[in-house]
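Q: Here's a chain of 214 amino acids. Please give me its 3D structure as tokens.
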Amino acid sequence: MPQIAPSITAYSPDEYRDQMETAAKFAHRVHIDLMDDEFTKKPNISAKDAWWPVGTKADFHLMYKQPGRAVELILEHKPNMIIVHAESSGRFIELADRLHQLSVLVGVALLPQTSVETIAPALEHIDHVLVFSGDLGSFGGHANLRLLSKIEELRRHKPDLEIGWDGGVNDQNISKLVFGGVDVLDVGGYIQDAADPQKAYERLARIAEETGTT
């Protein structure tokens, strides 16, 4: 069934704590955004300051040009998954092998302009591909549904691949995203900015479940 993962996109330890404590009340999986000042406009909290409650699956989305050092810091906390960008630098296969040796899932994010063919040769090393349709470093992105065509391409290459979506998920488009093949929906502003975040999460989860069973 499709999963909803609230996004944690914070620029201070206090903001991070508030967002994480909010999400942890109802979510079993969270999506933590970390940024440098090279791949994005400005950095946010350091990887060494990231944490999450026991029993919660933590996926890290590294918007880093060179993610290697941040990966090492995150690995100390045993995350569920680390997602790096296809547009990043570094030796990806070596990184993927190291993560798998430590039982950490390997994810790759694709910016809107990056084609599936860019990562096709490495898909055997990848557990999750994140179709990115948001604004790097902020909530409130636009869900460009034309990017759903990437999912069809990915499935042709690797049918059992887990596929995530980041950017603009809300109650008006989630059914189209799930029907289009998204497995994990990373949701930022719709949940974190809601008057009742838990109610917003439950609404999305209900729509996703209903769509996934039709």
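Q: Can you summarize the key feature?
A: The radius of gyration is 16 Å.
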